[in-house]
Amino acid sequence: MSAKPDAAPLLIACALGIERFALCTGGDRGGAEGPVTVLRTGMGPAAAERAVGKVLADPAMRSAAVLATGFCAGLAPGMHPGDLVVAEETRDPRGSTPCVGTGLLVGELRRAVPGRAVHTGPLAGSDHVVRGPERSELFATGAIAVDMESAATLRSAVRAGERPVAAVRVVVDAPEHELVRIGTVRGGISAFRVLRAVLPVFYEWHRSSLLPRR
Prior knowledge:
Strand content: 15-25%
Oligomer: single chain
Radius of gyration: 16 Å
Distance between the termini: 27 Å
Number of helices: 7
Shape: globular
Largest sheet: 5 strands, mixed, barrel
Structural class: alpha/beta
């Protein structure tokens, strides 16, 4: 199925070149309902907010659905590299943004990547890499994972206009598998492979978001 040029666009935002590479080389490139842009924002909340705001200022992107993705740090004990996180909301010191279509994403991800755990809950935003005690402090607030761009991405998206937004992240770093430990490379490869597999799920979420709401 080819994209319909008159359908609302889909903007998929990630921070790193390796994340964009995974998305653009994996999964089924067909099946999008409308035009798709995979945006590399750069690292950190300021870069994400700036990049997303610039893209959505284009009149052609006025009604675009926005999905933030890439890697994250898991906060809950028992999480492993390659686990998936579907945000119910993104939150940071500037506020929270509720996500749309969480249930659909969970179901489609379980079908697309069988055997991988899918976690749902609040996704925290930070302006730096979170380690050690700070990880436990964020988990105590109810957040299940943290990254540096999702909260800023979704905040920038809804500020530019009403639209469906969501965040799906792949755990690359977890309480028992911190990046500073031996095994980081193996965890990174696992997360990369999972991210490569999920693009069709994002298309399905976008298709669902275009349906009339009752």
